[in-house]
Every structure is written in structure tokens, then in C-alpha cells.
Amino acid sequence: MADPLLDILVPHLSEDVATNLSALSRSNLLADYLQHVRGLSVSQISTETTQLSTSLQAVDRSLTTLAINSRPHLISTSATLESFTERFNSLAISLPSLSQIIPELESNVSQFHPVNDRQASATLLSNVDKVLDILELPSLVLTCVRNGYYAEALDLVGHVRRLAIRYKNVKVIEMIQAEVDDALLEMTTLLLRLLRENVQLPTAIKVISYLRRLQPFQASPNPTLELQHIYLLSRVVHLKSQLQSLDPLKSIPEKYLKRYIELFREFVFAAIIGFRSIFPKEGAKQLLNDGSSALATQLATTKDGSENQESTSVVDAGDQLLSSFIYHTAMDLKRTVMDMLPLIPDKSSYAALYLQVIYSSQSLARVGGEFWGIMADETDRKEFAAAKENNPWVAALEKQRDLAKKLKSY
């Protein structure tokens, strides 16, 4: 039922306002406002227009502020709605193909028979802890690998392999083994990276022992030779990284050479000791003889193009690898010394550098790594014989012999 006051006011209002009021005639808000107007005095009614205008401006300001502050949310909502509309439309396009799959799905569901065997269910329930332990094996292996517990990881891998042998046709076990193999690949990468760092001998021995237990090396016809090659190659990479750190000293050639020779002696000596300790052979004296023989073989092959069968002995592949390592690192040392010496203006300091090289060679000789024959080849030795008094290498050798005699006299 229309309000009497509203009937009185409508003829005096514009057509748009009247239409809107007619639409709101059943609204409780409009009824409340008309009741509010009835309770106003004449003076208050005259100011109601001003108050309504002020309220309208306040509402406009509030709406403007809300629109500005909510702009990111409105844009996000609009984008989400647009995305939803696109996906809904794509779903509508896919419905025909989905409806074609439903009959096949219903057929498969109708053929499915749940397991009602109480004994099988009870067995599964009683072994649920063991099943969970098996399912957690890949994540446990990966956790051990990433935290450096390689021995524990390998023990778990052995357990997984035994399960794979025992349950050959179980898909879950095959999936677990595949995930464990991925973890082993990461472990292999970490171990190889560790060998290229400044590892101590006990750590290097453990790393090689872990690598030896991994599948690629277990399946190799000669895993020891491959591990020897990897170890020496890793030591070469580490030595070069250490020597490259000296590049800022190249502006001071004498200081650079001294530090270069020190690092060479330190790291090559440690590499040879590590090689002998990780890949031991019977008889320490025989080790040194084999190392010297292998290095002599390398020198003879490099100089003459073929091995001198009368002057070299038969050595195994590991000794040949070690001799090749000593030879190539010593050749790098020789090239560096020969390249940097002309840059040193004070030629009187040459003798000290030559003497440092000789001491390095004699230090490595204790482990079968003497490289003096590389630093002074046949051409050098002929020149030494022709001009002993003017050759700095010979002078350094003579000085070293004199010092050795003095030490023996004490």
C-alpha cells in the first residue's frame, strides 16, 4: 500500500525521481525515511535539503576514495573473472569429448570389484608401518646424500636393491628404485665435485671408497683405473684453480714465481701421497721404483717418440697415469718459469728461484716424483756441460750440493 506522504510528494518531483521513488515504494529504507520526515519540525524540514546535499557529497567522496584504494583489487578481480570466463568457455567446448569418455568410464567402474577378502585387508593393515618405511626410502636416501651421510645412503641403496631383486614384478618397488637411482646420480655429482676441492687425505679415501660402491664403477671392467684417472684429473683441476688465484701477483714476477713453485710442490706432493695411499700396492720401496720407472718411460716416450725398451721397466696403467700427471704438471711449471724469468729485472735473484725448483724436485723425489729431468732436458744438459761457469741452473745445483755437504758435516 502506498504511503500518503509519498502520494503528496510525487506530483512535485521530476519524472526520473518519481519513477525511482515508485520503484522503492516497497523498500523499508524509503519507509524509514518518510517516517523520519514526519517527525521533523517546519524549520528542520527547510534545512533537510542542505543536509541531504551534504550527505550526498560525503557519500561521493567515500565512493571516490574507495574506488582509488580498491583499484588493484578491482583490476585483479576483473582479470580473474575474465580468466574464469575463458576457462568456463573452454570447458563448455570440451564437454562433448568428455561426454564421449563417460560411457567407457562407467563401463570400467562397473567391472571394478572391491577387495572383500578380510584376511588380505588384515595383513595389509598389520604391515602398514613396513609399507610406509619402504615408500619413504627415496626421500630418506636423498636426505642422507644432501647432508653428507654417504655411507648411510649407500646402505639404504643396498636395501632397495635387495627389495628389487626379491619383488621383481612389483611396480611400486620399481618406482622406488628409479627414484633412488636419481638420488645416486646426485650423490655421484657431489662426490666428484668434492674431489676437486681442497680435501684432506682421509676424506679423499672415503670419497673414492663411496664411488667404488656406485653402480657405474661396479659395472666397469677396471674400476680402479677409472677411479685413478678421476682422482688425478680432479687434483689437476684443483691445482690449476689454486694457481689461477695467483694471477694478481703477476705484476710482481719474482713473488709470483716463488708462490707458484711453493703451491706446485705442496699440491703435487699431496696428490702423489694421496694416490699412493688410496690405491696402495705391496712394498713401499717398490712404489717409488715404479713411479720413477714410469716417469722415465714418459720422458723417453716424449723425447724419442717411442719407448726405449732397454732403459724402462714394465709398469702398470696406474703408474703410467701418475707419471703422466707428474710430467704434465712439471711441464706447466717449466713453461711458467721460462715465461716469467725474463720479466724479472734483478738477475741475481734467478739463483734463488732455480734453487727453489731444485728443492721442489728433490722433495717430490721422496715419493717417486722427481722432475729435474723435465726441467733440464738433453739440450739443457749439453749447454750446462759447455758453460758450467755461466749457467744459472748449474750454479744453483752446485750451491745445493754445497749446502747438502755442510748439513751432512753437522
3D architecture notes:
It comes from Lipomyces tetrasporus. It is a peripheral membrane protein. This is Conserved oligomeric Golgi complex subunit 8. The chain contains 20 helices and no strands. With 410 residues, the chain is mainly alpha-helical. Among the domains are: 128-195, no CATH class; 232-375, no CATH class.
Q: Any idea what the shape is?
A: elongated
Kindly provide the radius of gyration, computed on alpha-carbon positions and rounded to a whole number of angstroms. 44 Å
Proportion of residues in extended strands: under 5%
Query: What is the string of helix and strand elements?
Result: HHHHHHHHHHHHHHHHHHHH
Low-confidence stretches: 283-292, 302-315, 381-388
Overall average residue pLDDT: 78
Helix content: over 70%
Structural class: mainly alpha
Give the helix tally. Answer: 20
Major sheet attributes: none
End-to-end distance, in Å?
131 Å
Number of strands: 0
Keywords: Golgi apparatus, Membrane, Protein transport, Transport
Protein name: Conserved oligomeric Golgi complex subunit 8
Pfam families: Dor1 (PF04124)
Organism: Lipomyces tetrasporus
Features:
410 residues; mainly alpha; 78% helix; Cullin_repeat-like_dom_sf; golgi apparatus
Can you summarize this structure?
The chain has 410 residues and is mainly alpha-helical. The protein contains 20 helices and no strands.
Topology:
Blueprint: H1 4-9, H2 15-23, H3 28-38, H4 42-69, H5 71-111, H6 118-126, H7 128-135, H8 137-146, H9 150-166, H10 171-195, H11 201-212, H12 215-218, H13 223-244, H14 253-278, H15 284-304, H16 317-340, H17 350-365, H18 372-375, H19 378-386, H20 392-409
Helix pairs in contact: 8-9, 8-10, 9-10, 10-11, 11-14, 13-14, 13-16, 14-16, 14-17, 15-16, 17-20
